[in-house]
Design a protein that fits this description.
The chain has 17 helices and 22 strands. The chain has about 500 residues and is an alpha/beta fold. It has three domains: about 5-125, NAD(P)-binding Rossmann-like Domain (Rossmann fold); about 140-445, NAD(P)-binding Rossmann-like Domain (Rossmann fold); about 455-495, no CATH class. It is globular.
């Protein structure tokens, strides 16, 4: 017999503080059904009751005895559980007929605060891929933001929106959500307000702002008008093959857009500026990679300018990391879409591999770095070991209860423009060194450009920004490529090797 939502049974996996808070939330709201039991392996709790709710034994032993229906819900409330444990719990639940499986967010987001039912989301493949995220006490690492006005560029994107969620616990006075996509900014603005209404985080004033960072005067106006203290710069065009087809747009948006924000930040004595960078900025072989490398150089250039300003208290830095699981620019959403369509899953090369980290972990580390980072310093997140893309494809198929190459095929399609089999996280000359903060490394700043940065920007400017004295250069992809080749040795070398392959 089907039960309505109000009468459905809920089983909470984990009777610790997070599980108990979820149970209290459900009991208070009275619209999500009733908690039938906690499932926990703590011998001191088994057989007892917590606020009238029985604590049964471990899920591994009890799941088969519950006689659950497809309407019953399991909520995994073990924020610190390692990946392997989550995988086992999920397999046990699905094997025993649970149709609805939810999970609380990472421990970094709730360890010092409170857990709420509204934070629970559907369990998905991202929860059992990669490594167990590092534990960070978010509220402690965000003390530098208390009472501050924080602006996130690209706030509607994967990284920007997760930063915004975590910043709800930071005690910010105002949280500015800046982006050029009306729908994505609307979505994160709505989500944050819902979280606040449900008691998540603190009462920061949330302000959505729609605009283009390519508009220099607009950025000067916005940063001056908002009186923001801290900027997390996440906005960028990111899809490598698309940016190879639209290379002028990549440089115009990523490089000159970033320059606009940095210039405005310097003019207004911003306290902290944190750029989100990528492994593709290391010895770049794509226009997108070149654009992000130039963004890194711009940040370091701004840091030197800040030092030269009298009584300057600004800190400009960048944080570099590899792929994040589930971001809009990553392979996982494509795999999931291909799987829904019956396959095949497409992989560019059987040897292609990438470093991966979950979005919440990456954002927690970025926020921590923003508080401890020094002006003019470069940081790298410790990504662990790389994972083969073909292995990810196989894991996703298995997660869906299917068998790779039998139920769903995997097809090798060859590398696309601007792609390489491996993406290094640093150059040997950058000599990453450990800091006292787990998973945060510091890099040695080096110059890899063969053309001075200011001169290079002057060369690129008429290609991206119309100059009536040089109208023939405007939007010239060919000229842009030649300029980048002259300044970025790795890009030039890669294009030459590709040309040789084509000629051969």
């Amino acid at each position: 017999m089907n039960r309505s939502k109000g009468n459905s049974r809920l089983y909470i996996i984990g009777a610790g503080f997070a599980g108990q808070m979820i149970a209290n939330d459900i009991k208070r709201k009275k619209i999500f059904g009733r908690v039938a039991a906690f499932l926990d392996d703590d011998q001191n709790l088994i057989g007892k009751q917590i606020d009238g709710i029985p604590v049964l034994g471990p899920i591994d032993n009890m799941a088969s005895l519950l006689r659950c229906s497809r309407d019953d819900t399991a909520i995994i409330a073990i924020p610190a559980a390692p990946v392997e444990r989550l995988k086992k719990i999920y397999e046990t639940l699905t094997l025993n007929g649970f149709g609805n499986i939810k999970i609380l967010p990472a421990v970094s987001q709730i360890v010092d605060g409170t857990a709420h039912l509204v934070q629970a989301r559907e369990f998905d493949i991202l929860d059992i891929l990669g490594r167990t995220p590092v534990t960070i006490t978010i509220s402690k690492s965000l003390t530098y933001l208390r009472g501050k006005r924080v602006l996130i560029t690209g706030a509607g994107g994967s990284i920007g929106s997760e930063l915004a969620r975590q910043l709800l616990s930071g005690g910010c006075e105002r949280l500015y959500l800046f982006g050029h996509g009306e729908n994505s900014i609307y979505q994160i603005d709505r989500e944050l307000r819902l979280l606040q209404a449900e008691g998540v985080g603190e009462k920061a004033t949330i302000v959505p702002i729609i605009g283009e960072m390519k508009n220099r005067e607009y950025m000067r106006y916005i940063i001056k008008k908002t009186h923001c203290d801290v900027i997390f710069h996440c906005a960028a065009y990111k899809h490598v093959p698309m940016m190879e087809e639209n290379s002028v747009a990549a440089i115009e948006n990523n490089v000159f857009g970033t320059k606009n924000i940095l210039d405005a930040a310097l003019e207004n004595n911003i306290q902290r500026f944190v750029l989100i960078s990528t492994d593709k900025a290391v010895d770049p072989v794509s226009v997108y990679g070149c654009s992000k490398m130039l963004c890194e150089k711009l940040v370091l250039y701004a840091a030197k300018k800040a030092e030269s300003l009298q009584n300057a208290k600004s800190s400009f830095m960048f944080v570099r990391f590899g792929n994040v699981l589930g971001s809009r620019g990553s392979i996982l959403p494509l795999f999931i879409e291909q799987l829904k369509n019956g396959g095949p899953l497409t992989v560019t090369s059987p040897t292609m591999e990438r470093y991966f980290m979950t979005i919440p972990e990456a954002c927690s580390l970025v926020l921590q770095t923003g508080g401890v980072g020094k002006n003019g310093s470069s940081y790298l997140l410790d990504m662990g070991e790389p994972i083969k893309i073909i292995t990810l494809a196989e894991q996703i198929i298995k997660f869906s209860g299917l068998e790779p190459y039998k139920d769903i095929d995997i097809k090798i399609i060859g590398a696309r423009k601007g792609e390489r089999d491996t993406e290094p996280l640093w150059l040997p000359e950058e000599k990453p060194s450990f800091t006292k903060y787990k998973k945060i490394l510091e890099l040695t700043n080096i110059n890899t450009l063969t053309v001075p940065l200011e001169k290079l920007l002057q060369m690129l400017s008429p290609v991206c920004i119309y100059n009536e004295k040089k109208p023939d250069l405007f939007r010239s992809k060919e000229q842009l490529i030649e300029i980048l080749k002259s300044a970025v040795p790795s890009f030039s070398k890669f294009l030459e090797s590709e040309q040789e392959k084509n000629n051969g």
